[in-house]
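Changelog-adjacent note: as of this version, every example in the card shows the full chain rather than a window. The one below runs 118 residues end to end.
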Amino acid sequence: MKFGSNYSDDVPKKAMQAIVDAFKAANSGVTVNVNTVDHNTFQENINNYLQGKPDDVFCWFAGYRMRFFASQGLAGDVSDVWGKLTRLSDVNLQPDYATPGLVGSWILVAYSPAMRRG
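Full-length structure tokens:
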């Protein structure tokens, strides 16, 4: 699995790596290759990135920013994942297209549509 991340600063990058490590520990045999790109570069190029060959899973923002890409078919439906999440209260994001990543920053983890097609 390829994971596109804009968590390029040291502290959030380490936090995201801890999440990836926990995911791999819980899913033996799954390989995760993290593609970390400088935050500003990632943000400035997100449209081209998603229309090209995006990673299987990627970080992006909530609300209208995610809604736009979802409406273009550039983010896959992950509504089935929300029922499995715990310890989330008062979360009103884009449940069909994203799940919280590092919730404090409200940047999300979303699937590319190709990932869901398998």
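Structural remarks: The longest helix spans residues 10-26.
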